[in-house]
Amino acid sequence: MDENLKKIIPFALKFKSNVVWNIIFNVLYALFSTLSFVALFPLMEVLFKMNKKINELPKYNGITEIGSYGKQYLQYYITKLSNENGVQYALLLTVALVISTFLFKNLFNYLASQHLMKIKNGVLRDLREKMFSKIIDLPVSYYSEKRKGDIMARMLGDVNEVKNSFFVVLELIIKEPLTIVFAIIAMLKISFELTMFVFIFIPVSGIVISKIGKSLRAKSKKAQEENGYLISTVEEALTGLKVIKSYNSEGYFKSLFNNSISRLMRLDNNIGKKNNLATPLSEFMGIIVISILLWYGGNLVLVDKSLNGALFIVYLGLAYNILTPAKAISKASFMVKNGLAAAERVFEVLEVENTITNAPNAIKKVTFDDKIVIQNINFRYEDENVLKEFSLEIPKGKTVALVGQSGSGKSTIANLLTRFYDVSEGNISIDGTDLKGIELQSLRDLMGLVTQDSILFNDTIKANISLGKPEATDEEVIAALKVANAYEFVKDLTDGIETNIGDSGNKLSGGQKQRLSIARAVLKNPPIMILDEATSALDTESERLVQQALENMMQNRTSIVIAHRLSTIQKADVIVVMKKGKIVEQGTHEALLAQNGTYSKLVSMQSFE
């Protein structure tokens, strides 16, 4: 059994009652599919006056003779009706029998499909739920090398492909094969010789179809990967639309998109060509067999007189009845290959190991009492260390500023404190407890993060601000907005805190967005605040308001300020000057100016880049 097929089974077993009912109804469908053609025989016997007159009830001789008993019982009943009410009543009975068998066949097909639908939609929901949970839980480092569009394609397109293509396997192993089996049993009863032709057809057809479908799975996987690239291109283009337009790069992005959809079209055409070949090929091979049966069976009826003409017509109906499930099996086997390729891509994400997890004995820490200690840490994103033997103490209630040129490792400290990444060597502790020994959720509850990029969501102001405290009242939200100097513009909006701020908060200015980010951190009210270049993207007026908001927020808190501008850090208790992952100077603003070293040069340039 394919590995990906095994991985899907636990998802389907959650709906085992639906699976069981689907199997039961598929078995009944297959049985009545055969009976619907067998029921034509007594109808034709009545029509052509070929039925034997049986005036006594037949004897039941056990399950092995059930077919013969059923036929004789029906003939007895037809004889009785004909004698009592005339032949039209017998005709009416046989027509009703045919209608009943076809009715039950289609009813059981509908019920089986209903249960299959519930399985497919249920597994789709569970797979998406598990995948989104995994996507959210995976560390930030995972996405630094992955295209977001490809992850979206796996989450939406590939999971859907698993639903549409994969669960035909239930019909592939139950419904269609049993329809063929029941039909062949009935055909063997009618004529052993004729049925041998059918036995030749099935394996030959299977071999031809499997040859065509061999490369389908690899092609499907390529098409799904290309679909991921396509979604990535759209996502990046929409995110960077202002840059694309300002640099007149529309043509370049259009060519990227057009090349991708052309590659996808070629792959889809190739896959479609093979998929489309399955049905006509199996049907044509079936018609060849039917033609041989017509010639050979016709001889048995007309020349040898060894086969009843009405039985031969029923036999042809049964033989043709095999073609539909045979076509379905060939088509389903192609679809399963598509589903396997999609499942492979889904499970690639689900099985990624999450490197940032809770230790088995992790503690829940709810207070910050003493200090943060960073001790002899090394950290590298790839091969080269970004931080080298870095050590620092951050006492409770103090503001520590990190300054230095771009690439000196300032933002990396923020990433390590919040455990977006783990240190390569050394350790970071809070109140003497290593970060890895603290439950992730309780660690991040202790911290508020305001980044250079104001990350807001397409929702109301209230929903954005109460992200860290969902149960916050309107009064608490407004109080946080006031601390962040944001209420002055929020109160003038038509819907106040219920105003929707658009995609990424784009209905607001940069300064307004940043003040909402600060309000969000204020409402969370954590003991440790991390400000990662929180004012570097702002104009002077916005910076003044944001800086004031930051100072309001930092009162009575431990703050780590990653600074870009001088105004942000003048009042810090300790300024740490970094260069190439190491501390070169530290002290107060005045003390460092007096040293006339690296910090002094940075101040003279009025910029920390």
UniProtKB/TrEMBL annotation:
The keyword Signal does not apply. Keywords: ATP-binding, Membrane, Nucleotide-binding, Transmembrane, Transmembrane helix. It is found in: Cell membrane. Its main location: membrane. GO terms for molecular function: ATP binding. It comes from the Bacteria. It is a multi-pass membrane protein. Signal peptide: none annotated. Coiled coil: none annotated. The chain crosses the membrane at residues 20-43, 89-108, 164-188, 194-212, 277-297, 309-329. Residues 372-605 form the ABC transporter domain. Residues 73-330 form the ABC transmembrane type-1 domain. InterPro entries: AAA+_ATPase (IPR003593), ABC1_TM_dom (IPR011527), ABC1_TM_sf (IPR036640), ABC_transporter-like_ATP-bd (IPR003439), ABC_transporter-like_CS (IPR017871), P-loop_NTPase (IPR027417), Type_1_exporter (IPR039421). The keyword Membrane applies. This is ABC transporter ATP-binding protein. It comes from Flavobacterium aureirubrum. The lineage of its organism: Bacteria, Pseudomonadati, Bacteroidota, Flavobacteriia, Flavobacteriales.
